[in-house]
Predict the 3D structure of the following.
Amino acid sequence: MPGSLITHIFPGRCLVCGAGDQVHLGLCALCRSQIRAVPEPVCAVCGSPIPFPGICLSCQSGRPPFDRMLSAGIFDGLLKDIIHAFKYHRATAFRKPLAGLAFDMLEHAGISADMITFVPLHWTRMISRGYNQAALIARELSGYMGIDMRYDVIRKIRRTIPQVGLKRSDRIGNLRGVFRSCGVSDKSVLVVDDVITTTQTAREVSRSLKRAGASYVVFVSVGRIIR
Ligand SMILES: [Zn+2]
Ligand SMILES: [Zn+2]
């Protein structure tokens, strides 16, 4: 049903189903209950599910360039449908519940930062799509958290082919050096993306932020693909 999801825009109503019961940041209790959190415990660095609390083997053997990565839910079922409608069918009203899910999770985890920004699109893709879904979520989230929104700290300096369908080695090469950052010296930065598929994009963005002097980089996504 992706794409057929329509947005119910009535004040105080659930944006997904239109119900009016226990609506919090655009989602009713029933719709909210259909979104599955990433199962605990998760790695304290990369946020992937692990059998025991702590840091996963992969992060132990080589620390990623970001300091922390967290996701609000598993990219599946209703959350997948909402993100799909939001990203490809211009259902931009869904920015509110999507940012709401990230907000609740970040509050629970006690996360803050000096500024909020997002994974940029190349300007050519920005023109063809008309909006950057991650930027819309980030702007909403910055309002909820009371943290400065920054549009200009990360740039994507060349076009890349979509990561989906590429071999691992090609995915790494595809993104090498495509992001440039500035204006983050000694700052903690919270970077928003809609879905984390592989951590490759997050790694490249974080490398560019650290090169520009960022003191701490937290990556947050609404959805996460769990293998
Ligand atoms: Zn609902
Ligand atoms: Zn890890």
